[in-house]
């Protein structure tokens, strides 16, 4: 058993070195199951290519942002959620509901916002009137990633 584990670790370290995978991709965060992947081999979606699992856009820029690593994109999503939850966003008040949050995050002119809200509510077992400040930002990020890019979500969380 020890020999198998040592060989597995050596193979994983070699794979990570050859594919420029950092330790963050092996364990997205403490709540996630440990993962080992090279998203470029499995997922060719725009969010994966941009390392932008939340499909965040730039400020005053219609284009999706690009990040150097998936961790950087994930951290940016968490920060964006935090800004909106804390009322530091010019678009939302501190007591905004999930309904209001989704209408800002995924506006109806480019999304099926009602379907988006329904999916997030089902995933998180909450209602659309739940205050976003009462939702764990990692849980909300996970639900957003599921809606924004299901292929990347399956790689990150399954």
Report the sheet-strand fraction. Answer: under 5%
Number of E strands: 0
Distance N terminus to C terminus? 25 Å
Envelope shape: globular
Our count of helices gives 9
What's the SSE pattern? HHHHHHHHH
**Fraction of residues in helix:** 40-55%
Number of domains: 1
Low-confidence runs (pLDDT<50, min 5 residues)?
Answer: 1-38
What does this structure look like?
This protein is an all-alpha fold and 158 residues long. The chain has one domain. Helices cover 54% and strands 0% of the residues. The protein is globular and about 35 Å long.
Task: Briefly characterize the structure.
The protein is mostly helical and 158 residues long. The chain has helices at residues 2-18, 23-26, 39-42, 46-49, 70-85, 98-105, 113-124, 137-148, 150-157.
Please name the defining characteristics of this protein.
158 residues; mainly alpha; 9 helices; globular; disordered N terminus
Topology:
Blueprint: H1 2-18, H2 23-26, H3 39-42, H4 46-49, H5 70-85, H6 98-105, H7 113-124, H8 137-148, H9 150-157
